[in-house]
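Contributing: when you submit paired examples, paste them exactly as shown. First protein:
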Amino acid sequence: MRYALITGASRGLGRALAMALAERGWGLWLTARNAEDLARVRDELRETTWVEAIAGDVSDPGHRARLAGAVAEVGELDALVNNAAILGASPRPLLLDHPLDDLVRIMQINALAPLALVQALRDALPAGACILNVSSDAAVDCYPEWGGYGASKAMLDHLTGTLALENPQWRVYWVDPGEMRTQLYQESRPGENLDYLYPPEISLPVFLDLLHGDQPSGRYFAQDSAVLYPAF
């Protein structure tokens, strides 16, 4: 059995990916901040595969230590999917009005926590293991009112690319999933009907190909599988 740890697994893309990997026989550690929603996903999956849910905030060192301890009890980790993210203040403020403490919080969860999790789990990640960080088009293009979130994803991209160069023993990917109908995107557009967008499942094929395949480390776009930047 292969094992993956997925953050932000209680809803949206994280939940969809957990469902898809469970169907393919992966054992799963799942984490998210909302314990009730996370337990619901865990209970859905228990008849399909081995799954452990540990609720908490990935920016909390104590929570990361609990995740690393749980993984160590089982053994090696084949994949780490850093999907947890926050939008920050909503409605989205202009940068001139963006509270700095909110910007710090966005950076902590969206950019620094994924790196911190890799640091905490390094001994459980064997050669060939996959580290997959969920990026965004806002990491490479600038949009009004998306400065905080976009800057956090740009930081994540840079950290992930450097991690890939420094650790060729792993397969390291940063993936733009494209626009999807998720709660986070709904938070960015309060009250707007997002039925015109596809659900997160639209982006799963490329994520699954990366997790199961041997593609080189690099940045990928999930909705058409095109490499946005040259792989290493």
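Second protein:
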Amino acid sequence: MINNNPKVALVGRVNVGKSTLFNRLIERRKALVSKIPGTTRDRNYGECLWRGKKITLIDLAGIEQGKKQKGELARKIKEQINQAIKEANLVLFILDIQTGVCSADKEISKIIRKSKKKTILVLNKADNQKLINLANEKEFWQLGFGQAIPVSAANGLKIGDLLDLVVEKLALKKAKKRKEIIPKIKVAIVGRPNVGKSTLLNSILGEERVIVSPIPRTTREPQDTLFLFKKTPLLLVDTAGIRKRRKIKLKIEKIGVRKTVETIKKADIILIVFDINEKVSHQDKALIDLAIKYKKSLILVINKCDLIKNFDKKIEKYIYYYQNALPM
């Protein structure tokens, strides 16, 4: 990230409404929202403007309870959460006021206290006055973050009060006018699931910006990062993998695919990533046709070449194959 805005991390367990609140605060539907636990996986950044002050918000995956926290993917999700808390100036610790405090909330409270970051306890889903009154319950005070603020991300209730408190906690003074950094080139990374799109993004940025996992469709929504390359601001967007339409059954995947198509429309350059160990598929050709349809510049990225024995001696063979297999 190359802006100097103060950063606010949205932390909490699964399905407390972090992404809904994130979208409400940035005033657009950037984060994918679903009732399916664990929809959000990577850090998702968005900008909020309140009373003339710009704030960068970080939407995060929720922490699961018990055995669901185990496994490689769960470990990487925790790393994303810890990284966001580390870089944040303020943490919004989000709970579901309707379900109260559970064991996962208590575990998260320990992580936040250990970070020693300024924190606001946010009680989401306070959709009416009866629920708002629950904010003074003893169980919320016992978490040790002071007076909680009830909000409803779904209907916008008390969102202004929350933002006032955020500005107060960050002690934001009138910001000096800075020239807004606008990316000159927007680059979208697209391809089928598991061809290495997220690995490519992380390699370009030199950091673990997004989660890399052998589990298909780990990336569920576009992840954009603004960065400088030779003093030129670029926007690099990792996208969800696209597979054959007949194989897409879950609504969450359909939304991810739609967002990928929208990203292609808005990009200047498309990096289409292939796995060198797999033959060019109908889906690969469809992605190229889509990029051509919207008159986008194309760069073909043949990934995983390190897995081919004596690849240096076989380069011409592979170049010939892709030139003849692709509709270009």
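If you have annotations for the second protein, write them as plain sentences, like these:
The chain has a mean pLDDT of 83.
Residues 129 and 150 are 10 Å apart (CA to CA).
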